[in-house]
Write a structure and sequence with these properties.
By secondary structure, the protein is an alpha/beta fold. The chain is 35% helix and 22% strand. Helix 2 runs parallel beside helix 5.
Length: 198
């Protein structure tokens, strides 16, 4: 975990998984590099906020990063409308305890994102997850859940890096720099500026 810049109440906190995703954002806003996966994402965000006085917390949290496409034709940058946790069996846990720990989180209009602690690169996994979402990542649900539970507005913005298939690892490595550039351009677009309040 690394916080680049200083949190302040008049600006959002941008959250990325790895430095490569932040490389070309070219922003004055603080950026939290949380690490890969759900545990890293939630603990990094909550730890950064816990070490910051409440009056200096950001105006909102924006998770920007890469995502795999679960459906053909998904390209470009997307503001996520709903996010699911795909690798915890909420129904089984609900049957045991009466509470589903994996509720779908509704964030507004836009495509659905499936988050889990696996890099999706198997066509069978892609087909299975396409039944619940359009895109997949490894941090979005955790960031959204943590921010929501402490009362901070949250938005997920994902740029498609690969097709979540057998070529996904190679494609992600080759495209992450271009994805960071695209996210940096998006943050300075009218849609991005409206979202971040700038």
């Amino acid at each position: 975990m690394e916080l680049l810049g200083t949190m302040r109440p008049d600006a959002p906190l941008l959250v990325v998984a790895v430095h490569l995703e932040a490389e070309h954002l070219h922003t004055d806003h603080p950026v939290l590099v949380c690490g890969v996966g759900k545990v890293a994402a939630s603990t990094a965000l909550l730890s950064a906020l816990a070490h910051t006085p409440r009056e200096f917390w950001p105006s909102k949290v924006i998770n920007v990063g890469t995502a795999g496409a679960l459906k053909d034709g998904m390209l470009g940058t997307h503001v996520i409308g709903e996010v699911h946790q795909h690798d915890l069996d909420g129904r089984a846990i609900a049957a045991l305890c009466g509470i589903d720990p994996t509720p779908m989180l509704s964030l507004g209009e836009g495509p659905a994102l499936a988050t889990g602690d696996a890099f999706i690169s198997d066509p069978a996994d892609r087909r299975r997850l396409a039944g619940m979402a359009d895109l997949c990542d490894m941090e979005g649900y955790a960031v959204a859940s943590a921010a929501t539970k402490i009362g901070l507005p949250v938005t997920l913005v994902k740029h498609v890096s690969d097709d979540a298939d057998e070529g996904a690892v190679r494609t992600w490595v080759e495209s992450v720099s271009a994805c960071s550039e695209a996210l940096g351009v998006w943050l300075k677009s009218s849609e991005g500026l409206a979202l971040i309040g700038g």
